[in-house]
Amino acid sequence: MGSPERPDVAAMRAYADELREMFTRLQDEGLELHAKARAVQATETSRDGLVSVTVGARGELIRLDLDPRIYRRPDARALADTIAETAHKAAEAAQRRVIEIFEPVIPPDHFKAHLDGDVETVLSRLAEDMGGSR
Questions:
Q1: What is the per-residue pLDDT across 96-119, written as a single tens digit (0 to 9) for each?
Q2: What is the SS3 assignment for the chain?
Q3: For the whole prediction, is pTM greater than 0.85?
């Protein structure tokens, strides 16, 4: 009878199996999920209701609607800030939706870190999953 497997080797095998399963699911469902994610649009309206912004899955501006009432009290700086804030909220909503779409195959916290370009978190979670620490 062989000696029991070391815990670190067992953890690596378990993680490899998990990655293999995730990869297989991604292969099977990936194109459909990708199409759904690309079609994501999110619309947000400013607190005052005068600005409406629609963005795509990557936060790209698709539509900007300005209520004519913005001209009653012209304030270019306030309008620019409102547009930027509303666009940011719409981009966050779009990102949340994309993460939800991929949730069946990619853990949400891993995917969010990847989308945010947070390499430190991605590497840290990878190390944790492999039974180590970073």
A1: 999 999 898 888 988 898 888 888
A2: CCCCCCHHHHHHHHHHHHHHHHHHHHHHHHHHHHHHHHCCEEEEECCCCCEEEEEECCCCEEEEEECHHHHCCCCHHHHHHHHHHHHHHHHHHHHHHHHHHHCCCCCHHHHHHHHCCCHHHHHHHHHHHCCCCC
A3: no
